[in-house]
């Protein structure tokens, strides 16, 4: 199983990738949204790894997040990113203008929540 720092590195790489895409191109911007979600996923996984929790599916991860008293504050932002990434990946329409700009504050909230949890005992 990946260690917490490996998930953190993957989260940062996904975030860097998203910011490096040409956001004026709709296809690239859709992939930036997907990368933002996967960045959030790996930030969450970095925290879960410290608790020796390694959910294998999105459904399992959602349940773990909702049950964890410390992590559940990140759930609404994580869920938003998940839903937005589904729209970006599978639907031909439905994304609002500037979806990556919509995703960024939610990613930042997940990131801050996880950093706070990792810094506290």
Structural overview:
The longest helix has 25 residues, at 26-50. This protein has one domain (4-119): Nucleotidyltransferases  domain 2 (Four Helix Bundle (Hemerythrin (Met), subunit A), Up-down Bundle), CATH 1.20.120.330. The radius of gyration is 14 Å and the shape is globular. Helix content is 74%, strand content 0%. The protein is mostly helical. It contains five helices and no strands. Helix 1 runs antiparallel to helix 2 (26-50). It has helices spanning 4-20, 26-50, 58-67, 75-90, 99-119.
Sum this structure up briefly.
With about 120 residues, this protein is an all-alpha fold.
Architecture per CATH nomenclature, i.e. the level-2 architecture: Up-down Bundle
Question: Which geometry do the CA atoms define?
Answer: globular
Biggest beta-sheet profile: none
Q: Helical segment tally?
A: 5
* Mean pLDDT value: 96
Task: Determine the fraction of residues in helical runs and give it as a percent range.
Answer: over 70%
Structural domain tally: 1
Structural category:
mainly alpha
CATH superfamily: Nucleotidyltransferases  domain 2
Q: How many strand segments?
A: 0
Radius of gyration, CA atoms, in whole angstroms: 14 Å
CATH class: Mainly Alpha
């Amino acid at each position: 199983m990946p260690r917490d720092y490996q998930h953190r590195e993957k989260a940062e790489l996904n975030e860097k990738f998203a910011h490096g895409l040409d956001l004026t191109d709709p296809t690239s911007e859709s992939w930036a949204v997907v990368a933002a979600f996967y960045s959030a996923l790996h930030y969450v996984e970095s925290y879960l790894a410290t608790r020796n929790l390694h959910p294998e599916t999105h459904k399992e991860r959602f349940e773990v997040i909702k049950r964890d008293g410390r992590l559940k504050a990140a759930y609404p932002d994580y869920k938003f990113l998940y839903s937005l990434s589904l729209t970006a990946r599978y639907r031909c329409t439905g994304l609002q203008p500037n979806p990556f700009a919509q995703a960024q504050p939610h990613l930042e909230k997940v990131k801050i929540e996880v950093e706070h949890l990792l810094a506290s005992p």
